[in-house]
Amino acid sequence: MFSRDIGIDLGTANVLIYVKGRGIVLNEPSVVAIDTNTGRALAVGEEARQMVGRTPGNIVAIRPLKDGVIADFDITEAMLKHFLNKINVKGFLAKPRILICTPTNITSVEKKAIKEAAEKSGGKQIFLEEEPKVAAIGAGMDIFQPSGNMVVDIGGGTTDVAVLSMGDIVTASSIKLAGDKFDQEITDYIKKKYKLLIGERTAEQLKINVATVFPGSRYEEMDIRGRDMVSGLPKTVTINSTEIQEALEESVAYIVQAAKSVLERTPPELSADIIDRGVILTGGGALLHGIEQLFSEELMVPVMVAEEPMSCVAKGTGLMLEHMDKIARKKLG
């Protein structure tokens, strides 16, 4: 086995790449800066993210993935090519085998688009695997046993909920509501309450530094600057945790509801396992303050946040590739 195996967590918000034997070698925002006059990509990843909301009119920062699927094919391909060149896996004998993660309910057309983009970026064989399955493996769950494991993967564009057993998904649900929607809710709330327009990055800072989703579990304040909708001039206001909790209440309740409905559809034997083992939260959304308390209270089972929840899917791709090799070796043996 000389070809380098690569696992890609192709996320709406971030792309992480795992290379066999080297671990996670790249973690960058899924953003491409395009010059609208020439159509050329000027920057990709972190460099492009720095430009969001700060560029002249002819430069736009585009996120080519929406809700976990490809919204702009050519730009996704350009972004993948750029990242794969950056980690320099090419000049190493064969073309790499690539394992890419997708949300659970994407269509065959969407799957085909992801496969094609990866092939054009230089992959030899492309495998697609469902995100919650890979996240569960990356979070350290042994999903190949005949017992129930439940994972809630809250990403940038989608939240995937799944119950797994014997290496496969038993019941699952994927909703197009996750980290990006939280940012949007925060932006809308501040616009409505304070008549203040804030940018994406400010909303994200509030989500990280001030937000909580469990009433009364945190109290922080933060001064934010934006543009007053009435006067058109810059203005500063102070926002606290309680306000952000209010802003996020509806979205988070929707995710909890998705988890409940998956539990309700789970066979009783597996439900019993989940009461013992609990639920694991992965993805960037698992870092939201108070989220495990909220889930635990609503689902009435133990809930834990995975270690390094943002890199679970990428780590899982690595373990999944090893598992595929083991199976291949068994077949040959």
Description:
By secondary structure, the chain is of the alpha+beta class. The chain folds into 3 domains: 129 residues, Nucleotidyltransferase, domain 5; 95 residues, Nucleotidyltransferase, domain 5 (2-Layer Sandwich), CATH 3.30.420.40; 69 residues, Alpha-Beta Complex (Actin, Chain A, domain 4), CATH 3.90.640. Helix content is 39%, strand content 28%. It is built from 10 helices and 18 strands. The strands form 5 sheets. The chain has a 5-stranded mixed β-sheet with strand order 3-2-1-9-10, with helices on both faces. The chain has a 5-stranded mixed β-sheet with strand order 13-12-11-17-18, with helices on both faces. A 3-stranded antiparallel β-sheet has the order 5-4-6. Strand 7 and strand 8 form a beta hairpin. Helix 4 packs across helix 10 and helix 5 runs antiparallel to helix 7. The longest helix has 24 residues. The mean pLDDT is 90.
